[in-house]
Amino acid sequence: MSGAILAATDLSRRFGKIVALDGLSLSMGAGELFGLVGPDGAGKTTALRLLAGQLRPDAGSVRVMARDPVREGDAVRAELGYVPQQFSLYGDLSVQENLDFFGAMFGLNGAEVEARSEELLALTRLKPFRSRRADALSGGMYKKLSVACSLLHRPRVLLLDEPTNGVDPISRRELWQLLQRFAAQGMAVLLSTPYMDEAARCHRVGLLHRGRLVRCGPPGELRHSVGHGCYWLEDLPRQIAEEVLAQTAVLTRVPQGKRYRLLVRRDGEEALAQRVSQAGGRLTPTQPGFEDLFLLFTSEGGDGA
Amino acid sequence: MSPAGRSLRRTLALSGKELRHIVRDPRTLYLALGMPVVMLFIFGYAVTFDLDRLPLGVLDADRSPESRELVRAFESSGVFQRAWDLSNAAEEAEGHFHRGRIQGALVISPGFGRELGAGREGQVQFLLDGTDGVTAAIALGYAGAIAKAYQLRLLSRLSLELAPPLDARVRLRYNPEARSTIFIVPGLIALILALMMVLLTSLSVAREWERGSLEQLFATPAKRLQILIGKLLPYVALGMLQVLLVLALGTLLFQVPVRGSLLWLLGTALVFISGCVGQGLLISVLTRNQQLATQVAAITALLPTVLLSGFIFPIENMPWPLQALSTIVPARYFISALRGIMLKGNGPAEIWPQLAALLTFALVMLAAANARFQRRLD
Ligand SMILES: Nc1ncnc2c1ncn2[C@@H]1O[C@H](COP(=O)(O)OP(=O)(O)OP(=O)(O)O)[C@@H](O)[C@H]1O
Ligand SMILES: [Mg+2]
Fold first, then answer.
1. ipTM of the prediction
2. B54-158 belongs to CATH 3.30.565.10
3. What is the pLDDT of residues A172-202, one digit of tens each?
4. Which of A223, A303, B144, B180 has its CA 20 to 30 A from that of B241?
């Protein structure tokens, strides 16, 4: 993996009996936007902390630009931006004071901090709020400030832990535009998110489930790799629908309003169609999305299609 | 920027940030600067350990010149006031105690003068109301001193070849009116510093653990020592400010003297404060939690300083296990050094053992905190 800016090999970490991350391997090049997608407790934060050198792995290794973030921490941190999941700026400090403080921590001189924070404030459109206390910012503005603070030293790798969680839709779109712009400029951007719909915006997606990377690849490819039929089931009372669907070929079923969304094994499609029409219901095929994909992995305990 | 310049800039930026936290959270500031004032007033005005005319019941069953002289010795001390003459029964004293008419009773047995005249021991009983333990302990100390002085006077009269008695009240030599405020101020400085410095520093780091800001700070290349020093400096400054505040008020309001060098006093305080912030840091590194840090700070800083430092209870009157325990309480050495500098005009020649003890404590605490402080989340 000589071209990789960020690489993890067989990365594992446990907390007591909980295996938070189990053998994560991935590698990223410059200009790539990678999304680590997974539900609560999947191990996203653990993965990012390991990549950033904030935690020590039990097994496996991390390389950021060929350096070990635990042993060569300072060298790695000089090339790495990290936006934690929790609120981690100083709430009683203003936007500008937070930027000044982190600028000094990154070893920039006054003039550098001033120039770069101007630039980043303009980019994140936070200029009008520069004297506002960080804890008085909205969720979206806070995240943007957090991103700005971790970009002051112009890192080549940016890690963001659930940057869009708790952020309104408009700021969310703005954040995504920023991240895509950073990637286009050559930065390696890795973010985690619990939202399946965000996966489509990444160049590559890793599905994380119970500490394991169950699928990894470009979003389009992943979607097409679902080897099952995806359907809407309509016009059946719930009780009857449950009876009709009670068979092994139905891999996932999610009630949505009066309908059901289904993933059905190819070899069971015909039989199911018959039972549905006998019961008086309607079965319409549809395109599988990331939600279906994810549900499939999680319902099967993560071993996939 | 040179590495040294960068290091200095980081440290100062951290101190500046910490200072902003302190200034912007008025509670910290009120606590840090208000508490010394309040405590000084409480200890200076309300809780005076000076005993003034404690009502005394007297039962002189001997009625000899010797017994009358002993009673007079108690009366003229100014500490006790003859409030009731008890006729004979011990139950009578009991009744007066219950009604709060007397707080002490002097009971001289018949034959007291005769026994003394014959060179044997005279029997005297001294009863005290122990409800208020501190008052009782102090009164007992005075009673002992009065009896001792009386005994020496008697001795010198009986055998002429004995040298005239030295001042029996050795402990009161540097504080002739036995004013407790003078004695209290050094202890108060130690108490305030031990409490506030340990508490504030332990909270400041624990707060960053709880709020998650350490995660962001750890993502920067700031070094461990830069983080620690930068965070601690403002608290050291705040502690020095507290010392100056208490000293200024003590001198102005209670005429507390500073007979030794102010510079040595401040230097000693600086060493003590360094130990306290080190202790606070160690607590927060180990607990990572504000509530727990507060409790541990109270148990490891407040309690020993109040109970085992000699601030209120003299160490020499403690049972030996407590005396032994008191040797690891830094406030003990600090108070002793402060009393030496302020009341006796001591300098480094006299207080170096205390200084050495304080320095050792500070180094151990800071080294332990530094060793346990990880630049990582695990
Ligand atoms: N410091 C820790 N101590 C103990 N257990 C932990 C710790 N950090 C994480 N875990 C456990 O490890 C597992 C993975 O947690 P992690 O925070 O990595 O998941 P996540 O995908 O980030 O979840 P979320 O969406 O809630 O942020 C969880 O079961 C969690 O309880
Ligand atoms: Mg998380």
1. 0.87
2. no
3. 999 999 999 999 999 999 999 998 888 889 9
4. B180
